[in-house]
Amino acid sequence: MNESKLIVVLGDQLSLNQSALKQAQAGRDIVLLAEVAEEATYVRHNRHKIALLFSAMRHFRLELEALGHIVHYISIDQAVASLEEAARVVLDQHAVSEVVVCEPGEYRLLNQMRSVWPVSLSMPVNILEDDRFLASHEDFELWASGKKQLRMEFFYRKMRERYQLLMDEGQPAGGKWNYDADNRSGWRNQRDIPQRPDVSIDSITSEVIAEVNQRFPNNPGDLSQFRLAVTRYDAERQFDWFVTYALADFGTFQDALVEESPWVFHGLISMYINCGLLDPLVVCQRVEIAWREGECSLSAAEGFIRQVLGWREYIRGIYWLLMPEYKTRNTLNAARPLPDFFWDANTDMRCLSRAIEQSLDHGYAHHIQRLMVIGNFALLAGLDVMDVCDWYLGVYVDAYEWVELPNTLGMALYGDNAVIASKPYAASGKYIQKQGNHCQQCRYKPAKTTGPDACPYNSLYWRFIDRHLDTFGSNPRMGLIAANWRKRDPEDRAVIVQWADKMIDEWT
Ligand code: FAD
Ligand code: DLZ
Predict the structure, then answer these.
(1) Which residue's CA is minimally distant from atom 8 of ligand 1?
(2) Is 370 in the pocket of ligand 1 (CB under 6 A)?
(3) Which pairing describes strands 30-34 and 5-9: parallel, antiparallel, or unpaired?
(4) How far is the CA of 239 from the centre of ligand 1 (A)?
(5) Cβ 250 vs Cβ 291: under 8 Å
């Protein structure tokens, strides 16, 4: 059969190696790339995210055309409402026998493609597995089946063996699977942080930036600071820079909170891997080579590979294993509205203000800021889990539901019935002080628990333990803390909880 197919390529599938494009025959099939209102507005996306995807899509179109593909490109000014409508526009103009698409990264869209598209388009819709990931749905289901607990560490070991990453004669390199204990240094200005190279902005990106500013005036994101790569070539150069100048310190300072730098020694690559500009296996292999050639320590290489091969694949596995029910979970019944400072960073808590400000302005915060500063605050204050998840999904340039939801609901908010985290990632101001230098610039004192100059994280932490004593009392990893709290003078406890309640009432 030599009939033409419609190959739909989504904004986060910009790789020649994705399953649908691998089927495309240049000169015969029609490849559709569409900037559409529904995808651009289903949450209040950061302008950096929209600009990244629109510019990367426009550049990808040129790459495909140079390879001889027929591309139907719909730009945002054509006012097409949805991807389904975009497909219909093409089908109205061309004789096509089948729609082919690589599985989307969000359940809502997969559901539409499965149940609505074949009927509304009157056409078979062939949804192919997204084989850019290193564990298929079947692999993950097989691994998860029959297990009481789905711990990342054991999944990660299987993945190391399967992909032969950091393995020596069947054993983990260096004799240990995990060097996490070496990855927790706090920041005391031990190193100079290298200056990140800018990516130059070409005419396509300039045009996109102007359009995004004009069309999304109420979205977060300061596009005067847009410096992201929008092609595979530039994303690879950014990654090369990381391997050469930052990887060696990545492991040690992975958990550091640094006043002077949002990126510290992190990769800044999630946005590229997630939209198809970088390949997850290639980046892991490159980091292993850097270690074997003596360019970084084993703990740096292992720390990095654990994130990409372990956490990233595991998180995605959990999403598809448990959706759509997963999204309805709210273990701790957290229901408070988000404080206004989530939208303007206007809070005196220095760590929180810095993390929110850079998230809004750049669409980036590193893992510990997302988990232990913003997420920890949301957990302790009992903020509404879906409001928090929507905030994360909108604000970060790398956010798609498959990766955002388990990280936010499960890891940060302990809201998924303890699937991802065996205990809440709850911490007081002392943890934040230990990890970095924000407290030096803060008007609150991490050593104080109540009073106008006490670090709010402290009383919030104890209020959180107090409220959930019944849930945590029996958790072996929380039992000691709960028991210590129970032993404290009831009057002291009441003062701390009331102080925290008062602050929360003022914020929300
Ligand atoms: P690095 O610190 O350099 O790490 C290297 C790579 O490892 C990342 O690029 C990423 O691909 C991968 N990685 C590390 N941790 C995770 C993880 N927990 N889950 C998945 N991949 C991981 N990551 C996203 O890609 N999109 C999200 O929407 C997202 N939301 C998050 C929400 C919360 C509450 C938390 C705690 C984490 C979230 N993460 C998310 C994971 C992680 O914070 C980001 O991947 C990381 O900060 C991206 O920056 P980087 O590229 O500099 O990462
Ligand atoms: C995030 C996003 C945005 C902002 N805009 C588009 C778009 O206009 N067209 C498109 O194909 N994809 C876009 N995306 C990415 C999709 O939302 C993403 O493919 C789904 O959420 C599934 O992961």
Answers:
(1) 270
(2) yes
(3) parallel
(4) 15
(5) no
Between CA 128 and CA 21 the distance in angstroms is 10
Q: What is the pLDDT of residues 418-472, one digit of tens each?
A: 999 999 999 999 999 999 999 999 999 999 999 999 999 999 999 999 999 888 7
Which pTM was predicted? 0.97
Residue 358's contacts (CB-CB under 8 Å, 6 or more residues apart) are 262, 364, 365, 369
Binned at pLDDT 50, 70 and 90, residue 1 comes out as low
Question: How far apart are alpha carbons 105 and 103 in whole angstroms?
Answer: 7
Per the CB < 8 A criterion, the answer to whether 49 and 9 are in contact is no
**Structural domain boundaries of the chain?**
4-128, 137-194+246-322, 340-507
Does CATH number 3.40.50.920 belong to domain 137-194+246-322?
A: no
Residue 149: predicted pLDDT: 93
Nearest ligand by distance to the CA of 243: 1
Give the model confidence (pLDDT) of 285-340 as tens digits: 999 999 999 999 999 999 999 999 999 999 999 999 999 999 999 999 999 999 99
Which is it for the CA torsion 213, 217, 219, 223, positive or negative?
Answer: positive
Question: Ligand nearest 75 Cα, by number?
Answer: 2
* Phi-psi domain of 268 (left: phi exceeds 0; alpha: psi -120 through 50; beta: other): left
Atom of ligand 2 nearest to the CA of 50: 4
Q: Is 252:381 a contact under the CB 8 Å cutoff?
A: no
Using most ligand atoms within 8 A of CB, pick from 151, 274, 307, 425 the residue to mutate for ligand 1: 307
Give the amino acid at 382: G
Please indicate whether the domains covering 137-194+246-322 and 340-507 agree at the CATH topology level. Answer: no
Q: Does 1.10.579.10 match the CATH number of domain 340-507?
A: yes
Ligand 1 site-directed mutation target among 403, 405, 409, 416, most atoms within 8 Å of CB? 403
Ligand 2, CB cutoff 6 Å, lining residues: 10-12, 34-36, 39-40, 45, 49-50, 53, 83, 104-106, 109, 400
Question: Would you say the CB of residue 274 lies under 6 angstroms from ligand 1?
Answer: yes
The domain 4-128 belongs to what CATH superfamily? Answer: HUPs (3.40.50.620)
The mean predicted confidence, pLDDT, of the chain is 96
